[in-house]
Amino acid sequence: QVNSISGYRSKEGKTLSFIICVTDTPEYRMVANELKKQWEKIGVKLEVQYLNASDLQNVLTNHSYEAILY
């Protein structure tokens, strides 16, 4: 169900959300912002985590991500 206050889908009080890791460049920022808008239109909260190349490589190596734009 969609929470009437936040606009996000939730179940048993838990909001449907995920974090996407993105390289911090203008192009990736543009794509990530568009993805965020699209996910939020269907009630999913998307948090974008912008990372430099080194940090993104660590995230990939350790498989420590929910979603990734690469």
Question: Can you walk through the features of this model?
Answer:
- This protein is of the alpha/beta class and 70 residues long.
- It is 37% helix and 30% strand.
- The termini are far apart.
- The model has no long low-confidence stretch (mean pLDDT 95).
List keywords for this structure.
70 residues, alpha/beta, 3-stranded parallel sheet, two-stranded antiparallel ribbon, 2 helices, 5 strands, 37% helix
Quote the beta fraction: 25-35%
Number of helices: 2
Supply the helix-strand structural class.
alpha/beta
End-to-end CA span: 31 Å
Entry summary:
The chain is α/β, with parallel strands linked by helices and 70 residues long.
Secondary-structure map:
Layout lengths: L9 E2 L2 E2 L1 E7 L2 H16 L3 E7 L1 H10 L4 E3 L1
Parallel strand pairs: 3-4, 3-5
Antiparallel strand pairs: 1-2
